[in-house]
Write a structure and sequence with these properties.
Elements lengths: L5 E2 L10 H13 L4 H33 L1 H12 L9 E6 L5 E4 L3 E5 L6 H21 L6 H14 L5 H6 L9 H15 L7 H16 L11
Parallel strand pairs: 2-4
Antiparallel strand pairs: 1-2, 3-4
Helix pairs in contact: 2-4, 3-4, 4-5, 5-7, 5-8, 7-8
EC number: 3.4.24.-
Membrane topology: Peripheral membrane protein
Organism: Myxozyma melibiosi
């Protein structure tokens, strides 16, 4: 669904000139810097780091929109339903919550630039959120209905590729091989539903995910089968 605590715009404070920044950098490392200069230095360093994250995120997004097979497949199917997928509704933002991205029916997809780790991570994140977008258009999802939300989360984690074996080993440090894909899908769906404002706790989220599991895990639309 959507993730709160994200800024939808990138702050761009005025940066010092190259010489001034070099002087402040040297002063900071030697300790010969005033408190006022240190505050400016820290703010500018943070702004530059945020801008660098945003640039990398947008580069990964643009690459995947052009070259990713799964994203282009989802893009085609969303457009058949009257939707639109382009950089204007897939935005890189800084998030305060530990999430890779989110989907809002009114605003589109956000990628959390400070949490995504690689080009492949951005691909999985966009694919996950595009499945939510597809479900919104195809099934008119009520995101505050826990069963609706749970079903779309099961489908998104199942079909996006984020629960493929290599991701579980490298990204999630999960080394179980028997029913690993199913357990990953269930775990991630429960985590997402727990964040729904209408969900009381993790136990309720687990019950709802189990209730919709069979029908939603086996519903691979618009794919013929699970994306490898």
């Amino acid at each position: 669904m959507s993730a709160e605590g994200a800024s939808s715009s990138q702050d761009k404070p005025e940066l010092p000139s190259g010489f001034t920044w070099f002087r402040m950098l040297a002063a900071n490392y030697t300790g010969m810097i005033t408190d006022e200069e240190r505050e400016i230095f820290n703010n500018v360093a943070k702004a530059r780091y945020d801008a660098s994250q945003c640039k990398s995120c947008e580069s990964y997004r643009n690459f995947n929109l052009k070259w990713s097979p799964i994203i282009n497949f989802m893009k085609d199917n969303i457009e058949k339903l009257g939707g639109e997928v382009d950089p204007r509704n897939i935005e890189c933002v800084k998030c305060t919550e530990t999430v890779a991205g989110g989907f809002n029916p009114d605003h589109g997809i956000m990628i959390c630039q400070n949490w995504v780790q690689s080009k492949t991570h951005v691909e999985d994140t966009i694919a996950h959120e595009l499945i939510h977008m597809y479900d919104e258009l195809k099934f008119n999802v009520d995101w505050f209905n826990l069963k609706h939300h749970a079903c779309s989360e099961v489908r998104a984690s199942n079909l996006s590729g984020e629960c493929r074996m290599m991701n579980q080993i490298v990204r999630y440090r999960q080394f179980k091989f028997v029913r690993a894909h199913q357990e990953c899908v269930r775990r991630r769906a429960i985590l997402s539903v727990t964040g729904n404002p209408n969900c009381k706790d993790k136990e309720e989220a687990a019950r709802v995910v189990d209730q919709v599991w069979d029908s939603c895990f086996n519903d691979t639309r618009p794919f013929d089968e699970i994306y490898p």
